[in-house]
Amino acid sequence: MAGHKIAHAALKGPSVVKELVIGLALGLAAGGLWKMHHWNEQRKTRAFYDLLERGEIGVVVAEE
User: Fold this and answer.
1) What is the pTM of this model?
2) Which residue windows are transmembrane per the record (predicted)?
3) 59: Cβ–Cβ under 8 A, 6 or more apart, which residues?
């Protein structure tokens, strides 16, 4: 029975460099998604005000 050894991964502490790289990657990904969302909202707002300025839409409900 002494000849049957099971290979176990040696447990080590957290890798600081790996943690920093993962954190940086996740932060950049989340920041990129937030910026894309922000640009999309700006585009919609700009389009609304352009239509409002041209008179194609109005914000007052038309009376019947």
Assistant:
1) 0.62
2) 20-36
3) 52
For residue 48, what are the contacts with CB-CB under 8 A and spacing of at least 6? 57
Positive or negative CA dihedral for 30, 34, 40, 43? negative
Which residues neighbour 57 within 8 Å (Cβ) at sequence distance 6 or greater? 48, 51
Q: How many CA atoms lie within 13 A of 18 on its CB side?
A: 4
Q: Give which of 3, 26, 23 is closest to 14, Cα–Cα.
A: 23
Q: How far is the C-alpha of 61 from the C-alpha of 47, rounded, in Å?
A: 20
User: Whose structure tokens read 């999309």?
Assistant: 40
